[in-house]
C-alpha cells in the first residue's frame, strides 16, 4: 500500500509540476497558494491513514518547493539567496523557468525582473543537477516485497509425484 501511494503521489507531483512549466497562467502567487493548500490536504490524508512515515510525502517535495517559489518575494539579493537555499529539490533550469514564467495576476504583484532571474541563475551555477526541465511521469519506483522466512523446514517437504517434478533432487 505504501509503495502504491508513493507512486501515486509522485505522479500527482510530476504532472502538476510539468503543467507549471508548460503553462504561464499556472505560474502565479494565487496558484502557488492553491497548490500548497492541496498538498496540505494530501499530507492530512497521509496522516489520517497512518502513512506519514512513508516516503510518499517526499515525492511531493519538488512541487511543494515550486509552490513556495511562486509565493515568495522575488526582488532583493536576500530573496535570491533564500530561493537558492530553499529550492534544493528543483533543478536550476526548473527554478529559472518558473521565475521567467511568473505572471502577476493582481496589481500588488510585480513581474520578476530579468536581472533578478540572472542573479538567481548565477548563484545556482555551481550546483550540480540534471539539466532537464520536465519530470518523467512514466518513472516507476522499484517494487520491494518483504521477505518472510518459511516456518517449515524445506528439507522435510515431500514433493507429490503428481507434480511430475522427478528431475528435482534434494540438496
TrEMBL record:
Q: Where do the coiled-coil regions begin and end? A: none
**By what name is this protein known?**
MYO5C protein
Q: Which gene encodes it?
A: Myo5c_1
Q: Which InterPro entries match?
A: Dilute_dom, Vascular_dev_regulator
**Top-rank taxon, per record:** Eukaryota
Known Pfam families for this protein? Answer: DIL
Signal peptide as annotated in the record: 1-19
Report the residue ranges that make up the Dilute domain in this protein: 1-126
Q: Which UniProt keywords apply?
A: Signal
Amino acid at each position: 500500500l505504501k509503495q502504491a501511494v508513493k507512486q501515486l503521489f509522485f505522479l500527482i507531483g510530476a504532472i502538476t509540476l510539468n503543467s507549471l512549466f508548460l503553462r504561464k497562467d499556472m505560474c502565479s502567487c494565487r496558484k502557488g497558494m492553491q497548490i500548497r493548500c492541496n498538498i496540505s490536504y494530501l499530507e492530512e490524508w497521509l496522516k489520517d491513514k497512518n502513512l506519514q512515515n512513508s516516503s510518499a510525502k517526499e515525492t511531493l517535495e519538488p512541487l511543494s518547493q515550486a509552490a513556495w517559489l511562486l509565493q515568495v518575494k522575488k526582488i532583493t539579493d536576500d530573496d535570491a539567496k533564500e530561493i537558492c537555499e530553499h529550492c534544493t529539490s528543483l533543478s536550476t533550469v526548473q527554478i529559472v523557468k518558473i521565475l521567467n514564467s511568473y505572471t502577476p495576476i493582481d496589481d500588488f504583484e510585480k513581474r520578476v525582473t530579468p536581472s533578478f532571474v540572472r542573479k538567481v541563475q548565477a548563484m545556482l551555477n555551481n550546483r550540480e543537477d540534471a539539466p532537464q526541465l520536465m519530470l518523467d511521469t512514466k518513472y516507476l519506483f522499484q517494487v520491494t516485497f518483504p521477505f518472510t522466512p518459511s516456518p517449515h523446514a524445506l528439507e522435510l517437504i515431500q514433493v507429490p509425484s503428481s507434480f511430475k517434478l522427478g528431475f528435482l533432487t534434494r540438496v
